[in-house]
Amino acid sequence: MSLQSKAAVAVWLGALALSGLMLSRMSMTTDMTALLPQTADRLQQLLVSQLRDGVAARLLLIAIEGAPAEELARISRSMAAKLRAGGLFNLVTNGDLADATVEREMLMRHRYVLSPRVTKEHFEPAALRASLEERLRFLGSPAGAVTKAWLPSDPTGELLTILARMAPAEPPAMLHGVWFSRDGRRAHLIAESRAAGFDLDAQAAALSAVRDAFQQAAPPAGASYLLSGPAVFAVEARETIESDSWRLSLIAGALVVGLLSVVYRSVPLTLASLLPVLSGMAVGVAAVQLLFGFVHGITLGFGATLIGEAVDYPAYVFTHLSSGERLPDTMRRIWPTLRLAVLTTVFGALTLLLSSFTGLSQLGTLTVTGVIVAGLVTRWIVPVVTPPPASPPIEHVPFFRAGRLLASLRRGRWMLYPMLAGTVIVLVVQSHQLWDDDLANLSPVSQSAKQLDEQMRKETGAPDVRYLVVLTGQSREEVLTRSEEAESLLKRLQEDELIAGFELPSFYFPSATTQARRREALPEPAVLKAALAQAAADLPFRAGLFQPFLDDVERARTGPLLSEEDLMASALGLKLRALLMHQGNTWTALAPLRGVSAPQTLASRLADEGKHLWFVDLKEEAGRMVANYRHEAMRLTAAGVAAIALILWVGLRGLQPAWKVLAPPLFAIAVTVACFTLVGERLSLFHLVSLLLVLGIGLNYALFFHRVSPDSDESRQTSLALALCIFATLSAFGTLASSRTPVLHAIGLTVTVGAFLSLLFSALLIERELVSS
Amino acid sequence: MTALWRAFLIALALGLNATDDSAAEPESPMDVPRLMAMMAEVTSRQDRFTETKTFELLTKPLTLTGTLAYTRPDHIEKHVLTPYEDHLVVQGDQLTLRNKDGTKRLNVKSHPLIWSFVEAIRASLAGDASILRRFYHVKIEGTEGDWTLTLRPLDQQAAAYVASIALHGRKSRLTRVDITETGGDRSVMTIHEPTS
After folding, report:
1. Confidence bin at A465 (pLDDT 50/70/90)
2. A529 falls in which pLDDT band (50, 70, 90)?
3. Strand A224-228 relative to strand A89-93, pairing
4. Burial class (CB in 10 A: 0-12, 13-18, 19+), B69
5. Mind telling me how many Å the CA of A169 is from chain B's nearest CA?
6. Is residue A623 within 8 Å of residue A494, measured between CB atoms?
7. Which one of A46, A154, A378, B139 is least enclosed by Cβ atoms within 10 Å?
């Protein structure tokens, strides 16, 4: 080993050791929102914070089924009690009124500052008389037996007014005192975890607490429970992806190693083939950790894909080994081509570094570093550490007549042109529906799980809002005042049937000004007593019956206003946290709208008549965010392709050869996209990243086709190299394509189809020119 | 068509009711199976009622009048006409409440309390002892010509509101419903003889 080689190995080992140190401190996250840009506008920030920390992200929807309704109700009560006692949840509700005592008492205690009906006139004799007559009618009704307990303290019916305003238009169905689905087959519970939605370990613990609570409720045989919610999806997705990607990686790895062993018939060569990709991955991930402070799970997954082409690098070297040749000599022979293969990938990914999206720039960092390291390891380390094989692989591979195969293939070359014409037509015609920007479709959640979630949310009234009015202010008081001001506009829109209903944070927590105004309106004891006596004259109420009312009004008149702590101690705190939030000094109030019939009209009415408010369609907003991400990825990729073209121009010394090498993979990508569009598969970010890999792999194929010399030995070696590479790629990514996880499936399918087409097009387009010249 | 058919059935039932009256033996002691069997023979009924509700909160009772109707197997209707209108309909599991405030619908089984109150009347008129026993201790006294069916809630939550519901009758006719609430308030619903 030369001194130079020794130095190279030392540097390599040192880099690996440093990376290992870095990796031992690696902090990995799977929080999707960590990938989003820092500079997004306010609505996007809101969306991101809702996705991250919002109450909706922490909700767990639980359904119990498979037993008679009364049994399900019993299990629901038992589970609710267990989960409350467990301490992992802020709140567990199943609709049981017996558990709503805290809320009722809180509302009752603060009814005079909460009720919109509280004015001076409300306590004058005429209005009081009307209230009392109303009470009398209520007393005779079927509800009288239950509600009469409130009559002495609340003859004006404030509690009912408050409850009516807070009640959803379509409350969850009830059976045997707890929430049920409309068909009565499932009992429903909602639990809000203490831990944030993105804390997957804590969420996994919460899920197992639910399982334990169900088991401890002694469910009868046949009874089962269903879980839904963002946390459930995230935890399940993590498990599926982990198990799926481990399993598939093992299968793919075994296939590739098997293939290499058959071709090389040498353990050292097979093992040495893995050095570049493993070194590249280790150093690349360490670089991301160093630069960003964390590594995202998605970066890791995509990065592993992109660096995947590095598996091919040693294959190009080993297959070109001639009889009696030393590996370093072979290396020198093919290095110019291999160097160009490495550089094209590096330049292609370099532009990703410029992205404002953390996700893309992490990916760029990982790819650039990883591929450079893999290239360097292939060049300087692999030839020196690999013991020379007894005979070069080309010697013991059954001779295959690649030349003949290629010749017959090329006779069908004319078919390429109608194919490309067809592709252009398809892409132009379908250009508006190539991409799928639905954020939900990026998640690896199955369609059936999504439907279950939708159904459970609808039936329990759990917050899952698409249309929102967003109000902002510099303080809580300001934003609550704006929430109160928005009420009349929203009521008008409701009357005009543009919305079916709405909810405002001020329903639950009126501004201090409004509360104080209501408190001001409460009469002095003597005044109220006289007014009440006048109102109750000749009505059959027992004398002194309303003393609790007089006492309560006086207590409210002289007592404190409703505070945030009062609310937080009850389930209504959940509502408030979902509707009112702040980041620093910016307060935001959300008003979820129900039953939006004409979003366009609604948006323009709100824009014309509203002040300090925005209409937001969260689904559209999320879609726009994904689209932005994709547009940026596209722009940067286009820049990357330009950079690749430049490198090829310089490396191949001419525009024409550069175009010849670049054309096959680009055509392959176009045809792949057209094929997907034809079978109705819309492209997501996953496809886009996979297409980048296709470009990298395809360029390598084209480059090696391009360098083929008339020398028949070397021609055979290149054929073997390409055959080995395409088989390795097809077996690895074909395995991924068989996955049921959408991400893995998309990557696998795209790369399989794209790589195959790249090789085919390279074969059809390139060699013929060289042979004829 | 169905409305006509129902009207015909009601007329028929009222007629049958009258002939039943004349053929019975009023002095023999009543038991639950017999009463249930007799009730089960009536397809439908509709009668006027006067309900007097005594409240601890009030110095004098409230009096409501209206009509009470039952149609086999699971439809009951209480229509208050004076002093204000209040219409309660139970059809199967669906309870509908209509008054000047609007219409409210809910599932009878949504709360055990509501279900048990509905069944006190409906299951008695339907002659379904098994449903009654699901919610109440059931006791019967008197003769065929003058019986009293007393229901006491089994469930603690229901017992917190209602001490007993006593149904009085003659043969398959229901003549009076006395509800005694746990707090002492009472409701006496007298069901009038058909005038024609």
Report:
1. low
2. very high
3. unpaired
4. middle
5. 11
6. no
7. B139
Helix axes A125-140, A525-536, angle to 10 degrees: 60
Amino acid at residue number A594: R
Asked if the C-beta of B77 comes within 8 angstroms of chain A's C-beta atoms, the answer is no
- Say what the ipTM of the complex is: 0.82
> What residues pair up with A295 in beta bridges, in sequence order?
A28
CB atoms within 10 A of CB A307: 27
A642-665: pLDDT as tens digits? 999 999 999 888 898 899 899 999
Closest CB from B57, B88, B162 relative to A151: B57
Question: Looking at the whole model, is its pTM more than 0.80?
Answer: no
A556 within 8 A of A522, measured Cβ to Cβ: yes
Residue of A154, A181, A542, A546 to mutate, testing the B interface (most B Cβ within 10 Å of its Cβ) = A542
Measured CA to CA, the distance from residue B154 to residue B141 in angstroms comes to: 19
The conformational region for residue A324 under phi > 0 = left, psi -120 to 50 = alpha, else beta, is left
Instruction: Report how far apart, in Å, the C-alpha atoms of A164 and of each of A116, A286, A507, B90 are.
Output: 12, 58, 11, 23
The alpha-carbon gap from A37 to the nearest alpha carbon of chain B, in Å, equals 48
Q: Which of B58, B80, B161 sits opposite A145 (nearest CB)?
A: B161
Kind plus residue range of the DSSP H or E element containing A530: helix A525-536
Any idea what DSSP says for residue A491? H
Q: Which of A141, A151, A175 sits opposite B110 (nearest CB)?
A: A175
* Amino acid (1-letter code) at residue B161: Y
| Among candidate residues A32, B116, B100, the one with its CA nearest the CA of residue B108 | B116
The 3-class SS string of A576-605 reads HHHHEEEECCEEEEEEEEECCCCHHHHHHH
b or e along A552-573 (b: 16 or more beta carbons within 10 Å of the residue's beta carbon)? bbeebbeeebbeeebbeebbbb
Beta-carbon separation of B109 and A176 below 8 A = yes
Count of beta carbons in the 10 Å neighbourhood of residue A155: 22
State the Cα–Cα distance between residues A698 and A693, nearest whole angstrom. 8
Q: How much is the CA Rg of chain A, to the nearest whole Å?
A: 34
- Whether residue A736 contacts residue A248, with contact meaning beta carbons closer than 8 Å, is answered with yes
Taking CB atoms and an 8 Å limit, are B111 and A174 in contact across chains?
yes
Which residues, including other chains, have CB under 8 Å from residue A16's CB and lie 6 or more apart?
A279, A282, A283
Location of structure tokens 């015609």: A429
End-to-end Cα, chain B, rounded Å: 25
B55 close contact with A: CB closer than 8 A:
yes
Higher pLDDT, B128 or A55: B128
The confidence score (pLDDT) of residue A133 equals 92
- Determine contact, residues A541/A612, Cβ cutoff 8 Å: no
Chain A environment of B112 (Cβ under 8 Å) = 176-177
A276-292 burial: b if 16+ Cβ within 10 Å, else e: bbbbbbbbbbbbbbeeb
